[in-house]
TrEMBL record:
Family named by the database record: Belongs to the glycosyltransferase 87 family.
Tree of life domain: Bacteria
Keyword Metal-binding assigned: no
InterPro entries in the cross-refs: GT87
Subcellular location: Cell membrane
Transmembrane segments: 12-33, 39-60, 72-99, 195-212, 224-241, 247-264, 271-292, 298-319, 370-391, 403-422, 428-455, 467-488
GO MF: hexosyltransferase activity
Name this protein carries in UniProt: DUF2029 domain-containing protein
Topology class, membrane: Multi-pass membrane protein
Keywords (A to Z) from UniProt: Cell membrane, Membrane, Transferase, Transmembrane, Transmembrane helix
A GO cellular component entry from the record: plasma membrane
Length: 505
């Protein structure tokens, strides 16, 4: 009886720590959002403090998941506390740079995060394309909107700029522009738009992490929650939030959609998965998975929402962006439309499967061409499609399903001609989910941390020998393969002749 107070006190301290971590993270995002909406600094601070207090109190009263006292070892608890503190420090520093672009010292440099300089901002492409649809018929015209004219089209691009930031090239389907065009209505100025985008982006990623946590049973869910700061605070994630690339948000949207489907919220799930699909295409592989599992309500809502989004987009921008997209699509599939392929360093960092063959050029080998990438990409698409069908026929436990969703998304994302370091966000997520399914002994946590550190090792795009960079990227690719194989082997197959059963209500 006398030994009971210690575990009781520790569990309450853990609840408080989790509540404060979540409150702090959402507080950072709310501060940036308030500034993006034009609030003065004192009001933004007031809003942030209010969000911190409200979220922390709510998470204390109604925890994200019912914590299992037997799930958290001492090592796991200590790891959570350290990672939570580090993640908040990273977020606060990044928020300073988001709100004040002159504070470059608070940003991750080219040797950290995703290996890009602070001047790189993927979101510039979304902002420029959204602003240009009314005046420029071809929003994919690189030299009209994104790059300065050059007499050598094979030379590295010289980007146009917005303030201190280089404008990235737009390489997404037209329906995605519904989001930046809507945000531009409330934040028409670029810097305000950037702050608001960061606030929504970071909040979505964190909500996605928490929503998936609730799918698992209390034991595994507790471990997932305690390991989540390793995803949110990872330099890969912070670097992705800094460049504000869409990739991590699409992954979070797709996972959140599957959570909604599992809870019988088909309309919400369909809307989220539809937007993820029309924005980046690769989440469509989850629709295939749903078809195989005969989740007809989820499929119907998703397909219907896709049609609605395309229709709304046509009404908003007209058909010109769609004609341009159809013309651009073959180049997008082969990689020819991506200006980054003019830089050896960017080629070396590419994690995609088709990109492996393009790296042959770096070692003086033949066949590194866009034509080969397109062929390899088509073959790989068929392989992923077959794998999705096979895995969709398996009987999966509740704890296995999020791992399978994430595995399908990772496999599908590797089809892209160009997938730099921000493509490691779902890999980090899968790593902690896998770790949470085993007993959190020091050895298991140690192995996880080694893989985590290797994935977080920045691969600088614009420096060093590209062959060395390619070797560093290969380590990340090897870890991806190992994780995917582990998930594949651990999932249980359905008995021969049986159809996959519905996982949803």
């Amino acid at each position: 009886m006398q030994s009971e107070p210690a575990p009781f006190v520790l569990s309450h301290l853990l609840r408080v720590s989790i509540a404060l971590w979540l409150g702090g993270a959402f507080g950072v995002f709310s501060f940036a959002g308030a500034k993006g909406l034009g609030a003065p600094i004192w009001l933004a601070i007031f809003v942030a403090v209010g969000v911190v207090a409200t979220v922390a109190w709510a998470c204390w009263k109604c925890p994200v998941i019912s914590l299992d006292k037997n799930a958290a070892s001492s090592a796991l608890t200590i790891l959570f506390l350290l990672a939570a503190i580090a993640s908040l420090v990273h977020l606060v520093r990044l928020c300073v740079f988001i709100v004040n672009p002159a504070a470059v010292g608070y940003a991750l440099g080219p040797h950290r995060g995703v290996g890009l300089p602070p001047s790189h901002l993927c979101m510039t492409a979304y902002f420029v394309a959204a602003q240009s649809t009314a005046t420029v018929p071809n929003i994919y015209d690189e030299y009209k909107l994104y790059s300065l004219p050059t007499q050598n089209p094979d030379a590295p691009r010289k980007a146009r700029t917005i303030g201190q930031f280089d404008i990235d090239a737009y390489e997404y389907p037209p329906p995605f522009l519904l989001l930046p065009r809507t945000l531009a209505l409330v934040a028409p100025q670029f810097l305000s738009f950037r702050m608001l985008w960061f606030a929504l982006y970071g909040s979505l990623v964190l909500i996605g992490l928490l929503a998936v946590t609730r799918i698992f049973d209390p034991v595994v869910g507790t471990r997932v929650l305690l390991l989540s700061p390793l995803v949110l605070g990872a330099e890969v994630t912070i670097g992705t939030l800094q460049v504000e690339n869409l990739q991590a948000a699409v992954i979070a949207l797709a996972m959140l959609a599957m959570v909604f489907f599992m809870r019988g919220r088909y309309a919400a799930g369909g809307a989220l998965l539809a937007f993820a699909t029309v924005s980046k295409l690769f989440p469509a592989m989850l629709i295939v998975y749903l078809v195989v599992r005969r989740e007809w309500r989820a499929v119907a809502w998703t397909v219907g929402a896709c049609a609605a989004l395309v229709g709304i987009s046509l009404l908003d921008t007209g058909s010109a962006p769609y004609h341009a997209f159809i013309h651009q699509l073959p180049k997008l599939l082969s990689g020819e439309a991506f200006p980054v392929f003019r830089r050896p360093g960017a080629i070396a960092t590419n994690l995609s499967v088709p990109g492996l063959f393009f790296k042959l050029k770096l070692f003086g080998l033949p066949n590194g061409s866009f034509a080969l990438m397109k062929i390899v990409g088509s073959i790989y698409t068929l392989i992923v499609l077959a794998a999705t069908v096979v895995i969709g026929m398996r009987k999966l436990s509740r704890n296995e399903q999020p791992l399978i969703w994430l595995t399908i998304l990772i496999l599908a994302s590797l089809r892209s001609p160009f997938l730099p370091s921000y493509g490691l966000f779902p890999v980090l997520w899968l790593l902690i989910l896998l770790t949470a399914t085993v007993v959190p002994a020091a050895r298991a946590l140690g192995l996880m941390l080694v893989a985590w550190a290797a994935l977080n090792k920045a691969v600088p795009v614009f420096t060093a020998d590209p062959r060395i960079i390619a070797a560093m990227a290969f380590v990340s690719q090897a870890i991806i393969v190992v994780l995917l194989v582990v998930v594949w082997r651990r999932s249980k197959e359905s008995p021969v002749g049986m159809q996959a059963e519905s996982s949803f209500p």
